[in-house]
Amino acid sequence: MNLYILTEERPKIEVLEIIIKQFLKDKNFCAFLDNLRILPIIKDSTFSFSYELIGVRSEQIDKIYLEIVSGKSSFVDYMVFFQNHKPTQDDKPFYLIEETKTDDSESRNTGVYQRISKFVYAETFYPNAKKIMLYNIRVKQKEKPTQTSIFGTRILRTLGVEILGKDLKENDEILKPFSSIKELIVFKSQMRKAPKGNVPITITIDDREFKVDGLPSDDISVYTPTNKILISARLVKSGRLAHDPNIGAVSGIAGALRKLGFKGDIEIISHGLNQNQIGNKNKFIKIANLLNLSLQKLTIPQIEQEKAYWHYEKESEKLGTIFIHLLVENFSSGKAIFENHAGCEKGYFITRDNQSIALQKYENKELYKSGNKNAIVFIPDLILLDLQHLEIINIEGKTYENRYQGIEELKNYDFIEKEYIKKYYKEFKIIRSVVLYGGYEEKIIELEIGFLLNKKGQIILGIKAPKIFRFALKNLLDFWKKQ
């Protein structure tokens, strides 16, 4: 049978290797892995919108295919199927995998809390799929995990999620799922409190909070799974229901409480929302319906669950930028030194000595906060390094209908070129180019556009396409050329 790996992200060789090794281990299969490469599948000189991973030899696995998909809401980064045919909505995945590059050293919340809600939501569609949280950490990992990391990881474990890619030696307690409602609530109560002025995330039963130094006389253990649990958490951000770390934390806590057998009411308090900010499309409202949660003094609309969890991507500009990214890295000596594909996790800027740097968000943070929205750092969707020709290509990705907007946005890269590229790659010439996906045009007339992948899968180079585009594309077409 074939292995199908469906993803919203740009497929990464190092992540695919971890997934395949885990799959081999779980299935007790044997295979040889050597020089993994991702091949865009070309038929009659057109792209099929599928990729093949080569470099894995196994008697149990015929082919490994990669497909770019998108989720309806709160979609995990990878779904893995083991079957003969291309997956459909009716098929059940073997794995649900969320990948993050964020560690405690960068953010206590986004490294764990922000991802939990994805597993809570996905389990309603695929309760029997194996769930994995995969840490693809590029920066130095913090030696001692924070309380937030420990709590969030134990929530994940309670939800049945396996942890991969993180060094958990000497921190065995982080792997233990909570064994009871009491243990979960007591652990949270003992965590360091939020700074003054912030709304702390707290868990109380029937409006009674349990003390750190000894429980009250009416011990928590005597409470039944039908009492009312209150979770305080601020969910409003920028005037809407959008506080992702807290949404993840609340979803995870509530999901774990349900997993541990709590059947009573769970109410979210101190959320900061008003009724006008509650819609029926927000991922938290969908999770609230699934877990039977309520918001203090507000009404949560009852909504029908989505029938489809995912779909094959056919519209996004990332189909073009991901294609050119994989083309260059697999069919030339070039590589990406930064990526920010539409709807995907933003990467690091890679320096000449292979150090990973998180790009700053603002040219002037105070100016931005005062209302000047142009004080942010405008970043490309992709930066490619062509070592052979000593060129760096800054790429703006757009759909065909938005091509003129893409050309205009090429003008915004002065800051990143001055502060990052010229600092670390002094001898390189910098080129700016637009990469497009969509439409049915079969030629490009705008000089600023380097590449177009149209909806028919036709691959069109611009008049002034960067040299590395031409070189890599020739190699790809030669590879698939019939003898």
Search tags:
3 domains, alpha/beta, 483 residues, six-stranded mixed beta sheet, single chain
Summary of the model, kept short:
By secondary structure, the chain is α/β, with parallel strands linked by helices. The chain is built from eleven helices and 23 strands.
Describe the structure.
- With 483 residues, this protein is an alpha/beta fold.
- The protein has 3 domains: 174 residues, no CATH class; 115 residues, no CATH class; 166 residues, no CATH class.
- Helix content is 25%, strand content 25%.
- It contains 11 helices and 23 strands.
- The strands form 5 sheets. Strands 1, 2, 3, 4, 5, 6, 7, 8 and 15 form a 9-stranded mixed beta sheet that branches.
- It is globular.
* Unreliable residue stretches: 211-218
Cα gyration radius (Å) = 24 Å
* Helix and strand composition category: alpha/beta
Terminus-to-terminus distance:
28 Å
Domain module count: 3
Give the mean pLDDT: 89
The tally of strands reads: 23
